[in-house]
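Lecture 7 notes: from sequence to structure.
We start with the chain below.
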Amino acid sequence: MEKATAYLQAAQIRPVGEGALMVSFGNTIDPEILRCARALVTELEQHPFPGLLEFEASYTGVTVFYDPLVLARESSLPEDHWLSKGYREAAARVKKLLEGIRFTKEKKGDRIRIPVCYGGEYGPDLEEVAEYHHMTPEEVVKIHTGGDYLVYMIGFAPGFPYVGGLPPEIATPRKKTPRLAIPAGSVGIAGSQTGAYPLETPGGWQLIGRTPLALFRPWDLEHPSLLQAGDRLEFVSITPEEYKELAAKEKEGGRK
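Predicted structure tokens for the same chain:
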């Protein structure tokens, strides 16, 4: 049996408050679990049911938000002393969508190149990360740019990508004391994850570089997040001069 199919068949549905349910496919970071979550998102997009409000994928599943009153009116299920009719109807609709999922062989898409200026003012923690692993900063950069990365989810802040695939040689704990403000575009490491801050926010990731790309694009109403779950990434090292040139182009693009 295909691994993704096994995860799909073992999916668990449970209530999350009065108007939401969570579909869990496992409890590990796994590309095959991501396939399940993306497949369910596609089903929800293509086959929305009455009362469906929105849905959001995570590392291990999908949370579905719904109007319990609408679903209760739509339901022909008998009353239940423990679970509301709205939840049971929503769960039944989602279960039916899960049963209709069939996996086909996926083609790996092209990698999205993320230019990063490493170290210095752009990556103030690069030397600390290198020291933690008894490496040189150049070795950390070489390993980071050589990884095969996959975006698992967008969260924490608009456009913030949680990225798996960080080589274990440079996995580094978060900072003991988070910073109050991290510049937009900062690329960091937190445990076995890597990612980039789309906005200036507080955070505790180890900052090793910065990208000039605007990860959150509020001017693009159809695609405000540059990255999406399922995207494959490649980090590319650039010079400070190249950073400034690309940053100017991004700023100009945001004005249009």
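Points to note: The chain has two domains: 3-100, 111-254. The longest strand covers residues 112-118.
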